[in-house]
Amino acid sequence: MRPKLVVGNWKMNGSRANNASLLAGIVDGLGKGKGKAQAAVCVPAPYLQQCADTLAGSELAWGAQDVSVHASGAYTGEVAASMLTDFGCRYVIVGHSERRAYHGETDQQVAQKALAALNAGLTPIVCVGETLDQREAGQTNVVVNKQLSAVLELLDGDAATRIVVAYEPVWAIGTGKTATPAMAQEVHAELRSQLRARSLEAGEKVAILYGGSMKPDNAAELMAQADIDGGLIGGAALKAADFLAIIDAAKAAA
Ligand SMILES: O=C(CO)COP(=O)(O)O
């Protein structure tokens, strides 16, 4: 059985003062309640130092929301994977649909980012997902398979076993529309079989998270699905009580 993982994607939200109480609230609640689940927050880069200062030694891991494909050099505004490691990050989100849509990131760039992250010892959380038009055209599996295969093609050996995949249907992000558990499970199973085709170990080990309007009231039924190993949470990760309730649902489903 894969351990459940719940990751908060803060997106471009936060302030030092708000983060302090949010992080303290999450850490405080994590120790309570029964069961086990892994939890992390992916914060805007300027707040990584605050995470390193306040979360070191706690059960809450932290990470970033993007990474450069380059190792270092004249790339103004970019952040290298080694810099994220320097700040104690365990995770980095790559290929979030907001970056694909607003920054024109291609499948190939996303794959290079995943590789850069792995080379620095980080776990990339590779986001895939279809738009509403693509779903209505019956293209969901084709789209997510293409997005994931670009990453798998670039990774050698057992590197594919060290990624996390997040299925985030674009039409469900920030809209309050969630994929039904059955709809999500169908795509997760498809992604799982793609990973298994790469290697049995990748199929077995890689966590596939669901993201898109996951909330305390729908988390349990989503995470009860065989191939849903946790969540990538946007809006509900900004309130300690909601985030903790989702982590509790993960613990119960573990
Ligand atoms: O994009 C998401 C997480 O990466 C999901 O965001 P919401 O949970 O706000 O829909």
From TrEMBL:
Q: Which pathway does it take part in? A: Carbohydrate metabolism; erythritol degradation; Carbohydrate biosynthesis; gluconeogenesis; Carbohydrate degradation; glycolysis; D-glyceraldehyde 3-phosphate from glycerone phosphate: step 1/1
Residue positions annotated to bind substrate are: N9, W10, K11, G174, S213, G234, G235
Q: Which domain of life is it from?
A: Bacteria
Instruction: Cite a single Pfam family from the UniProt record.
Output: TIM
Instruction: List the transmembrane segments.
Output: none
A GO MF annotation of the entry reads: triose-phosphate isomerase activity
Catalysed reaction, written as an equation: D-glyceraldehyde 3-phosphate = dihydroxyacetone phosphate
- What compartments host this protein? Cytoplasm
Ribosomal protein is among the record's keywords: no
EC number(s) reported in the record: 5.3.1.1
Positions of the catalytic residues = H96, E168
Q: Which UniProt keywords apply?
A: Cytoplasm, Gluconeogenesis, Glycolysis, Isomerase
Which protein family is named in the record? Belongs to the triosephosphate isomerase family.
Q: How does it assemble?
A: Homodimer.
Functional description taken from the UniProt entry: Involved in the gluconeogenesis. Catalyzes stereospecifically the conversion of dihydroxyacetone phosphate (DHAP) to D-glyceraldehyde-3-phosphate (G3P).
Which PANTHER family does this UniProt record tie to the protein? TRIOSEPHOSPHATE ISOMERASE (PTHR21139)
Name-wise, this protein is Triosephosphate isomerase
Organism from which the protein derives: Massilia suwonensis
Name the encoding gene, please: tpiA
